[in-house]
C-alpha cells in the first residue's frame, strides 16, 4: 500500500501498529531494492511472502493486468482459465519480442523486468560457481539440445561456408541431434581409453582440424586448439554447473584459449522443471547475436521458475546444495565400491568425472547379456530411477549415424557397467535405498544364474542420457 | 480413494452418504474415461475440481512423486522450491525424450499422458475449427517463429540443396527471421494493391519459382503452384485458428494443392501465456520428422496451459468464444467506420482480412508525419493497447534486409492508417473504450494542429507484429 | 514497489513502460484507498489480482511476517505447514483480543484492518439490502445458533432475573438449542394456520408476556409488543438477507418497535463456507457489549471469506445475485405448480415466504406414510439436494422438548408436503433438473403404488433445517 | 484414476510405465487406508502431494462438488468466489449439524469424514503427548475462552443451581471472561508466593468449597478435592500440550481425582491460525454432551488446518518440535540468566513453569515505573514480540472485577519483571535476537537514567495474555 493508504489505515487501527506495518513493508521493499540495484542472487533466501509480493508487483506492471486497459491487438495477454492465470502469477506476455528474446516489451514492463533480473541473477550464479569472467548470459525456454542448435545456427551466419562440427563422442542423443538439426555434419572423434576412463583423443581432433578446417566442441586443451586455429568452440555444459571442477575448466578454457558459448540445462542444475537452458559466453556481442536469432517471443515459465528458486535458496542456499552434492558423491562412491566388492565387481576408476560413478557388471555378463539388461528392468520396477545399466555391444542409429557400443561412449568398452550419479538435490536416503535395492537385485540375479523369465520394464536400449563413466 | 478406502470410510460415516460420495467420484472418473478413450476436446467444459483431480492423478504417476522412489540419475525431477512444484502441479519431467519431443518418458508416465492427450485434444480442435482433414499435430514449447524455423530445418534435411524461401511479404519480424535463422535466403515477393487491400502477387511467385526453383510459403492458389512444382509449402497460420475463413483456406489448400505443415500460435488462439505453438500437417510422417528434430526434452508448461484451458472451456465454450469474436469484428468495423467518418477519414476496405481492420489517417498526415507517430504514443499512454499506427515511409532493416514502408507490408501504401483487431477474447467494453479514447486523441491532435510538445511513449517504429490491413 | 524501486526499474526497462506500470499500480491503490476511506462495499467488483494484492499487503503488516521479528511469546503466529499459511494468505493472528472480538491487536495490524474493514463492508450491505438504519454489526466466526446464544448470554447480564424466551415455533434444531444452551427456558408459541400458511399467534404471545413477563423473539408486530412491554427482542434472520421482504420487516420493526439484535448466517446469505454469522443491531452499545462477551481471539477465516466474496462481487454483483434469486423464485413456483397439477397435487399458498415453496403430497400419503419418506430417499439418491419431504406425524425431542409434527412447524399440518427453496446462487438448471427428477420419482412411486423395496437413503427424520412453508 | 482409466492409459503410454504409475498411486492410497483404519497421526509426515490428493478426494464426496447435483435447499455449499472455494479445497459444508457439532452431514460425506478423522488424530496426539487415558475429544472452531464457556454452559444444565466458579487467579482476560459470559460468578482464589513462584492457595480453595459448595478449576491436588467434594473440574490447558509436564499433571489429576474436561488452544499448540480449541475429557458422555451444546454447524477451517498440519508433521515431526522447544527453553533460561546478571538483575526461580521465564527489572523500577513501561514499548518497536514487561501496581477491571497488580497474577508481586516464553516453533535465532535487542534496550535505558522522551508503542496495560511466572 502507498503512504496515503497507510495514513487512512491509521484511522482504523492504532497508528503505532500501522507504522510498524509500514516499517515491515519497507523490509520487503529493501530486499527488492537490493535485487534491482545489484542484479545479484541475494546472499540469504527470501521468504515465500517476499517472493510472491515481488511477483505480484511485477504482474501489476503488465498491461493485461491494467485495470483501465482496452486491448484491440491480436496479442493482449488475455487468459481464458483462472487456473492458468494464477499458476503464472498473471505474467502472461512471455519474454522478448519479435526481434530479440532479450528485448523489452512495451506492453509488459513487469515481464520484461522479470526477464532482465533473471538473466542477471543467473549470471551472478555462473560467476560464483566458477566462471568468474563470464560476461553475459540469457535463459532460453528450450532444452539444452535445442539451445545448442540455436548457437550453431548463429555460427552458420558468421561462417556461411562451414559444414562440419568436430564432436568428441558422448552418447547422448540430443547432443548429437543438436548439430544435425542445425544442418551440420558431425565428425565423431572416438574417445581413447585410459584405465577405466575415456578421454578426448586430442591428436585425432587436431588431425581432423587439419583435414577439414572446421568448427567444433570441447574443454580446456580443445579451447587452446580452437584459439590457435580460429575455430568457434561451443561447450555443452549440460549439468556441469553443479560441479566446481567443470566450471573451473570452462573458466580456464576461456582464459587460455577460446570458448564462444557454453550451454547448461536449467532443470539439471537448478532443480526446476524441464525445459530451459542458459546460454552464456565471454563475448557479449556473440551472445547477443544468439539471443537475436530466436524468432519471436518466448515462454517466461522457465525464467520464472529459476528466479523463484534462486530467490528462495539465496546464494548461500544454493552453495549449500552444491556442497551437499559433493559430499554425497563421496558417500555414493564409498557405498558403491563396498557393494561392488561384495559382488566380486569393482568401482570403475574415473577421477575426472565429479558427478557420475560406475561399477562393473562382469559377473552378470558371464551369465548372459540378457542378465545385464534384466538388472535395468528390475531396478526400474523397484523404483530406483536413474541407475542405468550399460550392456556391451548395443548398436544405435541416431540421425543416420550408427554408434557401436552405444551408451558407453566408445565402440568397445571392456566391461558392462552400472551408472549412478550424485546430482544436485540427492539425499543420503536416495543412496541408502539405491544400494539396498541394487544389492537385492544382484543377489536375486546371481541365484537364478540361468535367468528364466525377464521382468517387465523398459528394454535397455530405451534408456537415454548417458554420461561418460 | 480406492474401494477399500471407501469401505473403511463407511465405518466412520453413514454408508449411504459414503456410497453417494463414491458415485460422485465415478462422475469425475467417467469424464476422464471419455477423454482418454476418445482423445477429443469434451463438448462441455470441466469444473476446476475435475481438472485438478485429473492433473493430480497424472502427477502421481511421475517418478518424482513416487513415495518410495530413490533417484541416482542426473535428472530426477527434483524441485527446490515448493512454489515452483505447486504451480506445475508437480509435473516436473517435461515432455518428450532426447530423440523425440512426442516420445514417452519411462520416468514420467503422467507427463507422457499429458503430452499425448494435449496433442490429441488440440488435433480435435484443429478439425472442428475447419481443417477437417488434418492428420496429426503436436504442441511445441516455442514461439511460432522458432517453430517455423524447426519446420525449415526439417525441410533442409529433405532437400539439402535448397537455398531460397519464396516469401510473400508480411511485415512481421519473427516471420522473416524464422527463415534467416534456419539458414535460408528469403526471396521477398512484394504484394500488389487491389483497392485498399494487399494481395499476394501470384505471377511474381510463379516467375520466381521458374527463376529459382525453390521452397516457399502461403495460401490456396499457392498450394496449387507448390503441388504443381513439387515445392514444400509451410503456412504461417499465426492467429488464424480463430477465423473459420483462414482455417477453411488451409483445408482447401491441402485438398487441391500442397501444404506440408501449418503452424499456429498457442497464446494468440487459445488465450494462454506466450510461448507455445502447434505444428500440424496432413502427412503424419513429415510432422513426426519435425517432432524428431527437436533435440532434447521440452517444457510441458505450454501443453499444460492449453490442456487446462480446453478442458475448462470445452468445445462449446471455445466455439462460443470464436462466435463472439466474429460478432465483435462486425461491431468494431461499424464503430471504427463511424468514427472515421466523423473525422473525415474512412475505414479501409479489406474484405479478405477477417480479424484486423484499419482506418485511414490522411488528415493527421497533412499536419505532419510526427502527428501520426504521436497518435500512437497518445494511445499507449491512455492504455489502448494493440491499436497501432502505421505512418508512411518507415524504413526498417531486419536481418540485413531493408524494408521500405515497414509495417504496411508494401513499399508505398497510399495513406497512413491505424490498425485494430478483433481477436479472441475481445469484449464489447474493449471496443467502446478504444473508440472513445481514440476519438479524444484525434480531437486533441486536430486542435493543436501545430503539434507542440510530444508526449512520452514508444516511438512508432518500436511497434511490432503488424498485420495485413 | 515503492518509488525508489520503480526508479531502479527504469534503469533496466524503458522508463516510459515502467511509468505506465507505476500508473497501473496506482489504479489498484486507488481502489484500496476508496475502500479504506469509505468502508463500503465497492460498486464494481475487484479483480482477483487487486484482491490478492490487498490481502498480501495486509499480511505484510502482521508481525509473523516481519522479516526481522523475533518472537518469544506463546502465541507468535508461527505456522508449521506451508499449505496452511498460504490458504490463509499468511494472516494467522485471527481477529480480536482477549477482551473483545472487535478489538485491535498490537501484533497484527493487518489482521486488525481486515476485521474492521470486513465489518464495515458488511454493515454497508445490510444497509443497501434494506435495513437502512442499522447502526453497527460484526462478523463472528460461529454458526447462527451459537451467535444467538452469545446474544442471549449478553442479555442475561442485563437481566439477571430473566428465565424465559418466548419463541414462536420454527422447527429448526439449532434455533431451539441456542436458547437452551444459553440456559434459558424456551416458551413455545404454537403457530396458527391461515389457509396453507402458518403465522405467529400474536394473541398467544401477548398472553404469555402477561403470564410470564419475559424476553422473546420475532418480527414486526412482535417488535411493537416488545417495545410496549420493554422486552428484549432478538431476531433470527438466518437466511433473510437475501430477501428484501425480510430485510424490510426488520427495518420496519426497528422503526415502530424494538429489535435489540438480528443475526444472520454468512454462508446462507453470502455463498461462503459454513461457520460464520453477522450480529447486527441498532444500538451500538448493545452490539459492542455482545462483541465483548466473546472471550478470546477468534478465527479470521469467515471474515476473510466474506471480504473476498464481497470485493469480488461488488455491490452490483451482489444485487444482481439477489435479483436473479427473486426471479428464479417465480420460475420455481411456476414449475412446481405445474408439476403438482400434473400429479393431482397443488402448490401450497404461502405468499409470506419469499424464499421457500411447498407442494402437497396427498396422493403419496394415501399409499402409505412410508411412500412420503421414500420420496425423500429417492431424491437424495438422485442428487436432488435440499428438496425435503415433510411427512405427517413425525415426533422429535430436542433438548428435552418433544415436538409433534416436527419439520412442519405445527402439531398437525393438514397434509404432507415437499419443500424447495430459491436461495441465493440457485440456477435455472437446478430448477429444471429438480423438476425433472421429481417428476420421475413421483411417477415411479405411483406405479409401484404398493411400495415393495425401499431404496437406501437417509430416513426422513434425519433431515434438518426446515423452513416455514 | 480407477482401473478402467489406467487400462485406457496403457493404450497411450507404454503399459509398464502406466503400471508403475498405478503402483505409485497405491502407495498414496495405502497411507490413506492406514489413516482411515487406525485413526491415528501417521508416524511419518505425508508429502504435500498425498495431503492434497486426500483433501481433493474428500471434497469430491461433498454434494456441492457432485457433477450432477441440483440444489433447491437454502444451504447448498455454493461459493461465489473461486479464491474462497480453492482456499478451502472446496470443502464448504462445515462440520456438524444443527443438533451436534460432531454429527455426520448427509450432504457432505467428505466434510464429515474430515471432522471424524481430525478428532481421531487429535485424540491420538493428546494420548502420546501424555494424557494416555483421555477417552474422547473434539475440535471446536472457537477460541479457548469461548470453548470454556461452552463447557460451563453444559455444566449449568447438569447443575441448574450452581452459581460460582472457584478460580485460582491467572491474569488472562479471556479466561476470566469465559466464566462471566457463561453467567457464573468467578470466586477469585489469590495465589500465594513461594520464593519467586506463585502457587495455588489450596487451603483457601478448600475453605471456599466449604463456604460455597460449588464448581471450579485447576490441577492435580485440585482434582483430588474436586473428586472428594463431587465438584466438576474444568482445566484451562491453553498452551499446555506442548509441555509433557502439563500433560502429565492432567493425566495424574484424572487418575487420582476428577477432571471433567480440559481445553487447549489449537494455535498455541499446533502452529495453526488462531480460532480453534480442543475440548477433551475422560468421560465420553460428558464430552458428547458438550458437543451437542453447540447449536448449529460450524466452520471446518480450524479442523482442516490442524489435520493438514499433523499429516504434514507426522507424530515424529510433532515430537521433534516438542523436543526442540524443551531444549530451547533451557537455552533461553541460560541466556536470560546471563543477561540478567550483566545488568544486575536475576532470572526468577520458577521451576514449575516449563514454558515461560521471567527476569527481574529492579533497577529500572528504581528509575521510575515509566522506565519499565518504556522498555515494553522499546521492545515492541524493535520487533521483539511476546517479551512482555510486568510493571508493579497496574490495576485493571475485567467484567466488573478489579485486579490489583494485574498481569503479575497477584496483588503485590515483589518486583517488576520481564516475561519470555519458549513456545513451540521457537528458534535459536529468535532467542539470540531477543537477547541482543533486550541488552541494547536495557543499556540505552540505564544511560538515560532520567528517561526523557518515551517512544511510541502500546502502553503496558494494553498487553494481554499473561502467564504465571
Task: Characterise this structure.
- The structure is a homotetramer of 469-residue chains.
- By secondary structure, the first copy, chain A, is α/β, with parallel strands linked by helices.
- Chain A has three domains: 3-87, Arc Repressor Mutant, subunit A, CATH 1.10.10.2160; 109-312, Type I PLP-dependent aspartate aminotransferase-like (Major domain) (Aspartate Aminotransferase, domain 2); 318-462, Aspartate Aminotransferase, domain 1 (Alpha-Beta Complex).
- Helices cover 48% and strands 13% of the residues of chain A.
- The first copy, chain A, has 16 helices and 16 strands.
- In chain A, the strands form five sheets. The first copy, chain A, has a four-stranded mixed beta sheet with strand order 2-10-9-8, sandwiched between helices.
- In chain A, helix 13 (301-342) packs across helix 16.
- Chain A is globular and about 85 Å long.
- The N and C termini of chain A lie far apart (56 Å).
- The interface between B and C is medium-sized, with 13 and 13 residues.
- Strand 1 (70-71) of chain C pairs parallel with strand 12 (384-385) of chain D, so a sheet runs across the interface.
- Chains A, B, C, D: Converts O-phosphoseryl-tRNA(Sec) to selenocysteinyl-tRNA(Sec) required for selenoprotein biosynthesis.
- Chains A, B, C, D: One of its GO terms (molecular function) is O-phosphoseryl-tRNA(Sec) selenium transferase activity.
- Chains A, B, C, D: InterPro entries: PyrdxlP-dep_Trfase (IPR015424), PyrdxlP-dep_Trfase_major (IPR015421), Sec-tRNA_Se_transferase (IPR019872), SepSecS/SepCysS (IPR008829).
- Chains A, B, C, D: Pyridoxal 5'-phosphate binds at residue 75.
- Chains A, B, C, D: Residues 447-469 are annotated as: Disordered.
Amino acid at each position: 500500500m502507498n503512504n496515503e493508504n497507510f495514513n487512512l489505515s491509521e484511522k482504523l487501527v492504532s497508528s503505532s501498529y500501522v507504522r510498524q506495518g509500514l516499517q515491515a513493508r519497507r523490509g520487503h521493499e529493501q530486499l527488492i531494492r537490493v535485487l534491482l540495484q545489484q542484479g545479484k542472487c541475494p546472499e540469504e533466501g527470501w521468504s515465500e511472502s517476499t517472493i510472491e509480493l515481488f511477483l505480484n508487483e511485477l504482474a501489476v506492471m503488465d498491461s493485461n493486468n491494467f485495470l483501465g486497459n482496452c486491448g484491440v491487438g491480436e496479442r493482449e495477454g488475455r487468459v481464458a482459465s483462472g487456473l492458468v492465470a494464477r499458476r503464472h502469477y498473471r505474467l502472461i506476455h512471455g519474454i522478448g519480442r519479435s526481434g530479440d528474446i532479450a528485448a523489452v516489451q512495451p506492453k509488459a514492463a513487469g515481464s520484461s523486468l522479470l526477464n532482465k533480473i533473471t538473466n542477471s541473477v543467473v549470471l551472478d550464479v555462473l560467476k560464483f560457481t566458477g566462471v568468474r569472467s563470464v560476461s553475459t548470459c540469457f535463459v532460453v525456454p528450450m532444452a539444452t539440445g535445442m539451445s545448442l542448435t540455436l548457437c550453431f545456427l548463429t555460427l552458420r551466419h558468421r561462417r556461411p561456408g562451414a559444414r562440419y562440427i568436430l564432436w568428441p563422442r558422448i552418447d547422448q542423443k540430443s547432443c548429437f541431434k543438436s548439430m544435425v538439426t542445425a544442418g551440420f555434419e558431425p565428425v565423431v572423434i572416438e574417445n581413447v581409453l585410459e584405465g577405466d576412463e575415456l578421454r578426448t583423443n586430442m591428436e585425432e581432433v587436431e588431425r581432423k582440424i587439419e583435414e577439414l578446417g572446421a568448427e567444433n566442441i570441447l574443454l580446456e586443451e580443445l579451447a587452446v586448439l580452437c584459439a590457435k586455429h580460429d575455430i568457434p568452440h561451443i561447450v555443452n555444459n549440460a549439468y556441469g554447473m553443479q560441479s566446481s571442477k567443470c566450471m573451473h575448466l570452462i573458466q580456464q578454457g576461456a582464459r587460455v584459449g577460446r570458448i564462444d558459448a557454453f550451454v547448461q540445462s536449467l532443470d539439471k542444475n537448478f532443480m526446476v522443471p524441464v525445459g530451459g537452458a542458459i546460454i552464456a559466453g565471454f563475448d557479449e556481442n556473440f551472445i547477443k547475436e544468439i539471443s537475436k536469432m530466436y524468432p519471436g517471443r518466448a515462454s517466461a515459465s522457465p525464467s520464472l521458475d529459476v528466479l523463484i528458486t534462486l530467490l528462495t535458496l539465496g546464494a548461500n542456499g544454493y552453495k549449500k546444495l552444491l556442497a551437499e552434492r559433493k559430499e554425497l558423491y563421496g558417500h555414493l562412491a564409498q557405498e558403491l565400491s563396498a557393494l561392488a566388492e561384495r559382488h566380486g565387481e569393482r568401482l570403475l576408476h574415473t577421477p575426472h568425472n565429479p558427478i557420475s560413478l560406475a561399477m562393473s557388471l562382469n559377473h552378470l555378463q558371464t551369465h548372459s547379456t540378457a542378465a545385464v539388461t534384466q538388472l535395468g528392468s528390475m531396478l526400474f520396477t523397484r523404483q530406483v530411477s536413474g541407475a542405468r545399466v550399460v550392456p556391451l555391444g548395443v548398436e544405435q542409429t541416431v540421425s543416420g549415424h550408427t554408434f557401436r557400443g552405444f551408451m558407453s561412449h566408445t565402440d568397445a568398452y571392456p566391461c558392462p557397467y552400472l551408472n549412478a550419479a550424485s546430482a544436485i538435490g540427492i539425499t543420503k536416503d536416495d543412496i541408502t535405498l539405491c544400494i539396498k535395492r541394487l544389492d537385492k537385485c544382484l543377489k536375486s540375479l546371481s541365484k537364478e544364474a540361468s535367468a528364466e523369465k525377464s521382468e517387465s520394464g523398459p528394454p535397455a536400449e530405451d534408456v537415454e542420457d548417458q554420461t561418460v563413466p
